[in-house]
């Protein structure tokens, strides 16, 4: 069933003794706003976790394949689209990027039908073999921590070496040293938006939307690693508009979700915060759905 409503949502998640999103430009330190000290997690990182969850629960089968994934060769997926629409002959010759013509629209529609992340988040598929571009109905912001976070650096010891040459350098002591970066605790908030108009263009429907809510609620449960410590979804508050254009500005709705720290002491657990919702101030034509929290 096609989407006929606009949605805006708030996602709350936390991390304990882990690195929620390392910055490769800073030696993989946790991302931090340099001016405020508040932690950051990119929208790309959050989408990656959604993709991984959907790929896991749907076994990478159409219509829930994942386009952007580890070791994917994107042009090979584009080839599949032209084979799928019966236009493989358009790929012959050297100038593949310009080929396709009217079939580009068909190839784009094939990609939307088969790949969840294409119809959800969109994709630029005009590199190499041309399947056009898709603007996705789901948009996510960077997540930002409620309070400043402290990035800690830990020295760690590995009781082994990788090669015999390393062992010789260690003079019989195979210990090697490393570094690990963590945030003791951080509660993060991200905002998201769902456009029914763009959903109609990509074929993103009600079933896809329910899968998105499930992914946002459970994605950290299946993304455990020593580097990320404990990460959990603590709140998923969805504002459903009665209309496609919407009945209230998104920023006004987001302000209704208020997160307060309970004391001046450094937070080390979700219980150190109180999350409240000003439900009485929800405008007419908007319904709050508490998926988590």
From TrEMBL:
Transmembrane segments: none
One GO biological process term: maintenance of CRISPR repeat elements
Signal peptide positions on this chain: none
Superkingdom, taxonomy of origin: Bacteria
UniProt xrefs under Pfam families: Cas_Cas7
Protein name: CRISPR-associated protein Csd2 family
């Amino acid at each position: 069933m096609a989407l006929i409503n606009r949605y805006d949502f708030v996602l709350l998640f936390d991390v304990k003794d882990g690195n929620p999103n390392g910055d490769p430009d800073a030696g993989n330190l946790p991302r931090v706003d340099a001016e405020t000290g508040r932690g950051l997690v990119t929208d790309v990182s959050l989408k990656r976790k959604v993709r991984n969850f959907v790929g896991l629960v749907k076994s990478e089968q159409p219509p829930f394949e994942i386009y952007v994934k580890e070791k994917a060769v994107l042009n090979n997926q584009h080839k599949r689209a032209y084979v799928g629409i019966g236009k493989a002959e358009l790929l012959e010759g050297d100038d593949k990027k310009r080929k396709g013509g009217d079939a580009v629209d068909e190839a784009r529609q094939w990609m939307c039908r088969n790949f969840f992340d294409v119809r959800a988040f969109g994709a630029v598929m005009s590199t190499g073999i041309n399947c056009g571009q898709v603007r996705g109905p789901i948009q996510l912001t960077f997540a930002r921590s409620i309070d400043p976070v402290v990035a800690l650096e830990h020295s760690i010891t590995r009781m082994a070496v990788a090669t015999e040459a390393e062992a010789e350098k260690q003079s019989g002591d195979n210990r090697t040293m490393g570094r690990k970066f963590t945030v003791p605790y951080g509660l993060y908030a991200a905002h998201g938006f769902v456009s029914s108009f763009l959903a109609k263009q990509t074929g993103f429907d009600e079933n896809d939307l329910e899968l998105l809510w499930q992914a946002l609620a459970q994605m950290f449960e299946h993304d455990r690693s020593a580097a990320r410590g404990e990460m959990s979804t603590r709140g998923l508050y969805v504002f459903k508009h009665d209309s496609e254009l919407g009945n209230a500005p998104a920023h006004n709705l987001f302000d209704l979700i208020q997160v307060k720290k309970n004391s001046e002491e450094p937070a080390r657990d979700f219980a150190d915060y109180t999350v409240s919702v000003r439900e009485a101030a929800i405008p007419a034509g908007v319904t709050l759905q508490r998926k988590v929290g």
